[in-house]
Amino acid sequence: MANSPYVFDATAENFRVLVLENSGKGPVLVNYWSPRAGPCLMLMPRLVRLATEFGGRFLLVMLNTDEFGRLAREHGVNSLPTVKLFRHGNVVDTLHGAESEAVLRGFISKHIDREANGKYTAALQAWQRGDLDQAVTRAAEAALAAPDDPRFAIDLVKLLILQKRYSRADDLMKSLPREVRQHPEIRNLSVHAGFLRTAGEAPPVATLERAIADNPDDLEARYQLGAIKMAQDDYETAMQQLLEIARRDPAYRDQAGRDGLLAIFSLLGEDDERVRHYRTLLDQTLH
Length: 287
Known about the structure:
CATH topology of the largest domain: Glutaredoxin
Number of domains: 3
Number of helices: 14
Mean pLDDT: 90
Largest sheet: 5 strands, mixed
Structural class: alpha/beta
Radius of gyration: 26 Å
Oligomer: single chain
Helix content: 55-70%
Low-confidence stretches: none
Strand content: 5-15%
Number of strands: 5
CATH class of the largest domain: Alpha Beta
CATH architecture of the largest domain: 3-Layer(aba) Sandwich
């Protein structure tokens, strides 16, 4: 029907698996249509565009009523086009007519948002009862259900950091949509998770200090030393190394020197004397 991995054609034989069983995993939208009805032909490309836009957060299933009229009548369809949203084997919402793309997006979004919020609530409940593994699982499901909403990703990252799964938290943030990665709290969390991951994988401090003494432009050694010092709450030394990185190569590790300093500033607060001092030095370095 359409060149999309999220759009399928229904038949009497595959409807149970395609729609009813899959609706136990996530929302399934069934479009009841006829090639003889003009409004159906207007609606179809709008639905296909939205299926692609939502990227698998719902499945779109096309049911041709000219071929499977009996199946449509069993579902109470008596006008075309009709769109029904299935969840857990049941119809949970219905839309009639060739609605605009904006109306369709709102119709779909309210169910996906409800899905994400339900999973997020389950994550909070699991965390409150001390089941951190379950909390992470549910928070991950919420983040997948609403990848453009930074709230779910932020709390998932925090839970992973609590579990000391720094590599997983770091990888997760790198996989987020670019717009979400630019959220200030996500940027700070990303820096912290990256530091904690690097600190856990870095060579001993003495080895790094020798490497820097031998080659002051060894920015990786400086970054690793800064990460270790930050993990040890030695923010002064961490900021020294990050400032040197910003001075020597502002673009290193996607502006790791600047972003690392900003993350520490956020952690310590603007009233901290060290923050005022290093912010001035950073401004001088960048300008």
